[in-house]
């Protein structure tokens, strides 16, 4: 009987599975830290020269908002989250493709944002699609670039508890 799966294949498969798990942890950690309003922890998930690109409008003429480097990313998160009482990001599916010490991926998320307007609480729900470029660093995987695409949004009044 021949060995269909030589040891190198098992080693390679183990590494791919470990890398997939690490990238899933990376995107889950991003959502966790955003919801905890820990902008420094979110920024630390990026490479030193990483980019956060926000595409919140669907019109072709609307230019994306680009933040470069951990300091700009952290500052933008603080400013962007300040208007919300609380957020909850529910991370859905993730698809990744590897290329050596780099990878690309798409991740979907439903982002819930509670805020107050005219004395009443409201909830803004956004269907977000992240298009990511990842880079393996000595300390682990990081975002080289994270593009946020807004697929749809719904703004509604919240019921009292």
Structure notes:
30% of the residues lie in helices and 50% in strands. The relative contact order is 0.17. By secondary structure, it is of the alpha+beta class. A six-stranded mixed beta sheet has the order 2-1-6-5-4-3. The longest helix is centred in the first third of the chain and has 29 residues, at 7-35. The protein has one domain (7-157): Nuclear Transport Factor 2, Chain: A (Roll), CATH 3.10.450.50. It contains three helices and six strands; from the N terminus they run H-H-E-E-H-E-E-E-E.
Largest sheet data: 6 strands, mixed
How much is the average pLDDT? 92
Strand order of the largest sheet: 2-1-6-5-4-3
Total helical elements: 3
Please provide the ordered H/E string of secondary-structure elements: HHEEHEEEE
Low-confidence stretches: 1-6
Radius of gyration: 18 Å
| SS elements, strand count | 6
Q: Label the structural class.
A: alpha+beta
- Percentage of helical residues? 25-40%
CATH architectural label: Roll
CATH top-level class: Alpha Beta
